[in-house]
Amino acid sequence: MSTVETTGPVPGRADGSDAPPPPERTAETALSRTLQKIARGDLLVVVMSFVFAFLIGSVLIVIADQEVRASLVYFFDRPTDALTAIWQSVTQAYGAMFRGAIFDIPGYSRAAQSVRDAGGSGTYVLLPALSAGLRPLTETLTVATPLIIASAGMAVSFRAGLFNIGGTGQLIAGAMAAGYMGFTFDLPVVVHLLVCLIAGVLAGGIWGGIAGFLKARFGANEVISTIMLNWIATYLLFFALKTAAFTGTNQSQPTSPSVGDNAVLPLLLGSGFRLHAGLFLAAGAAVVLWWLMSRSTIGFHFRAVGSNPRAAQVAGISPARTAFLVLAVAGALVGLAGAVHVLGTEQRLTEGVAGSIGFDAITVALLGRSGPVGIVLAGLLFAGLSTGGRFMESNQGVPLDLVQVIQVLVVLFIAAPPLVRTLIGLRRIDHPGASTRLRGAGRGRTGGQKAAVASGAAATAAATSDAAASGTAGSEAATTGSGATGSGTSGATAADATGTSPPDPAGDGAAPAGERSEDRTDEQEEER
């Protein structure tokens, strides 16, 4: 009686096939790993977002320029005139933005030349020239100071899963409280300033706490409640500036008296600049945000509720109480921004004291990923675009609305990293290895089917050989054949249990029609 030995699966091969294993992938080089890290990182997205935003802004600047439009009329006769006009329009506009936001090179040169003409040299020339050249940067820092503080407050609520839209109302509340304490009372120098700042923090915290209480006690949506509180604070300011308590003797104009000298934030660079000590408070707000959300217990509660409120509640953290604390803390920081804005820059209350700081803080917080470093950089960016845009409008005649378009485009591109990567040809970075996994899955299924077919054929051949060697009657051979069929059935059952297709009963090694069509489907998927 002869036996046929079947070949088992090759050790180490999951699909049971005896094909040689694929060659091992070579280790990635350090350069390729670095390039992939850069492609997947946020820095590339941010840089390319600025590039795309300024490119679109350039197109808008060219369209808005009358000289460029006039040169395009005879473009085919003298194309160089149109191209020169386009280049000058774009470069002069962005050059004016740089001069108004960071460094005024012509102002530096004029100041240095005037000092040299007066007989000065050395540091007598350098210091006045630097003072004139860096004036735009000091204005950018001045505008960014309350914006960074307010954005830190917005980041607290965003990281806790609450979308706080009440920045304007909380800033107005803080500004009203700080301004009222500033022009009503006469206290010693340091005490008066501290009282005004604390009043602004408390007023902003109370105003934000109202929305937090409505959220915790009644489940009110914080988006709706904070928006409504914005309007309440706005019209409350309008009403207050029509009363004697906030206007004093000058009731003909809706402005308050100037805050006392003891309540004004001290200037850092003298009376020739507006940069004040609120800059240190802005840096302190970023540090407080980092410590609060990364190192404190209450910040851990904020982040836990923002990530998964139900899991936080199971862990013993009250989502309702946390929501109240989140909006109160966020309102306190935004109220501090209002106090700094009044005591450092405005120094009096007006109907437009809040400006667009409250809503810009939302954008800055989102743009900075609600992190301290990102908020500082985004705040400086928005402040630079604001100050540079005003200078660009006055110096080059470019509409200020185009600067706001550039701001919106920057936010749009940064908020959609897959869009940016698609535009620069890195679409596959967001879904790495998808096609490789698809091809690997197709190969795995095909290998399993081949193993099942080989196993069924070997079992059938073994049964036939045993029947021939025994020399029994045809009925006994039939019985053996039925046993082979049963063996094949059990093999099919085992194959089904392992997720593979049943073996071919014919024993010729050919897969059924269903399997062949599936193989073709896998091959088509691999080709795609």
UniProtKB/TrEMBL annotation:
Protein name: ABC transporter permease
Transmembrane segments annotated in the record for this chain: 43-64, 165-183, 189-214, 226-247, 267-293, 323-343, 374-392, 404-424
Transmembrane keyword on record: yes
Region feature (Disordered): 1-26, 466-528
GO molecular function: transmembrane transporter activity
Cellular compartments annotated: Cell membrane
Domain of life: Bacteria
Membrane topology according to the record: Multi-pass membrane protein
Keyword entries, A-Z: Cell membrane, Membrane, Transmembrane, Transmembrane helix
GO cellular component, one term: plasma membrane
InterPro entries: ABC_transp_permease
UniProt feature, compositional bias: Low complexity: 466-482, 490-514
